[in-house]
Amino acid sequence: MYDYVIIGGGIHGTYVANCLLSDAGYSHSDIRIVEPRAELLDSFASKARRCGMESLRSPFVHHIDTEPFSLRSFVEGAERDGELVPTTSHPNRPTLDVFLDHARDTIERGHIERCHVRARANGITERHGALEVETGEGEFATRNVVLAIGPGGGRTRPEWTESLPDGAPVVHVWDDAFDSAETAVDGRTVVVGGGITAAQVCCRLAGSADVMLLSRHPLENTLTEADPRWMNWDHIEKEIHPLPAGSQARYNRIRAARNDATIPPYVGERLVAGRERGEIDVLIGEIACTSPTDDGLLVRLRDGTAMTVGQVVLATRFDPAPEHPLVSAVAQSLSLERGTNRFPVLDDHTLAWRRRDSTNSNVYISGALAEPTVGPFARNIIGARRAAERLLA
Ligand SMILES: Cc1cc2nc3c(=O)[nH]c(=O)nc-3n(C[C@H](O)[C@H](O)[C@H](O)COP(=O)(O)OP(=O)(O)OC[C@H]3O[C@@H](n4cnc5c(N)ncnc54)[C@H](O)[C@@H]3O)c2cc1C
């Protein structure tokens, strides 16, 4: 029997595994990471590359190693100091390349891949006091499970996409079919969205494609996803834990704290430069409906105007994390409690998912699903650190 089976080998799952191995005295044979992709962190790396992200939004002390200055030592050792990008009113941020190289180095040094089982988890059951994680590659009996499955299972698509025939030139930025480095489209590319992802895709396409950013709200610049005080556990405890677990009040407090659909100033500056060079158009508006034409797509906006475009790229958000199909399956089979907007109800001290009888299960949560307890940075790299501290405590 394993001590921990971690479901999801992304930023959160890999970080938790690293902490268990480095700081909590577990060995590789005690832990399994169930992850369907060929490599740990592949989900984050492929999304970041696909949207043309050049540097992280978070500072150089946020990464998957356990020692905060590990990435800086890595950069100095490799003489890659230029890859820590100076940022006004903020610590330096790593380029995507140096962040990923450091992450791979951390995985190699800790032999974390030895824990990786290439499989998808389909459910968790309880048998003779132990948990069994069901996967396509068999069952894994374990004392504890860490659910680190990232954002929800799907991508949010606007209603107007529902009536489009297969093959219509509409792609989501997280679809495997999309790569912002590929620009072979006749006609204009309209990128739908008003946040960092949409802005990065436009900047990446600018110069090699005719690009328009279509946002339904005016563009807003903010440096971080929330006020940095929310990275601090004392602040989280003071601000959200007094509100009832699973309540709408907690959810609202966290939503109000997140700067969703905003653009950090250094990406905003690239967008402005692209506009000034005449390479990017920005339009505030919303698509009402579309229909395929011989040249691409006829797009009608809610204000009555219309345009013909070569393709539409949706840079809209993921489905909410609680809609991931595994969440419902696990909640049902283990009788676990869900609160407002279907989020798991957690013990605020341990991040254990509570049973419906209010006792703690041995299923723990890290990532976006832990937002009602870990706060507005739950999904971020710093959220993984806060979650692992709770799990290990
Ligand atoms: C483009 C982009 C840039 C970002 N930049 C930053 C940044 O600069 N700083 C920051 O702090 N945050 C950033 N974030 C936010 C956050 O850090 C990332 O989303 C991060 O990847 C979240 O980690 P995760 O482990 O929760 O999810 P993921 O990295 O997506 O990992 C989840 C894993 O779970 C696996 N999984 C899902 N279902 C199952 C199943 N049933 N069985 C087994 N495995 C399963 C998936 O295959 C995936 O590998 C960014 C996010 C994106 C999308």
In short:
It contains 11 helices and 18 strands. It is globular. Helix 5 packs parallel to helix 8 (265-276).
Based on DSSP secondary structure assignment, what is the total number of beta strands? Answer: 18
Radius of gyration: 22 Å
The 3D shape can be described as globular
Structural class: alpha/beta
Mean pLDDT: 95
Q: What is the fold named in CATH at topology level of the largest domain? A: FAD/NAD(P)-binding domain
The named CATH superfamily of the largest domain:
FAD/NAD(P)-binding domain
Oligomer: single chain
**Element-by-element helix/strand order:** EHEHHEEHEEEEEEHEHHHEEEEEHEEHH
Q: Which CATH class of the largest domain applies here?
A: Alpha Beta
Could you estimate the helical fraction of the residues in percent? 25-40%
Please give the CATH architecture of the largest domain. 3-Layer(bba) Sandwich
Instruction: Please describe the biggest sheet, giving its number of strands, its sense, and whether it closes into a barrel.
Output: 8 strands, mixed
How far is it from the N-terminal to the C-terminal residue, by CA? 22 Å
Domains, number: 2
Low-confidence sequence ranges: none
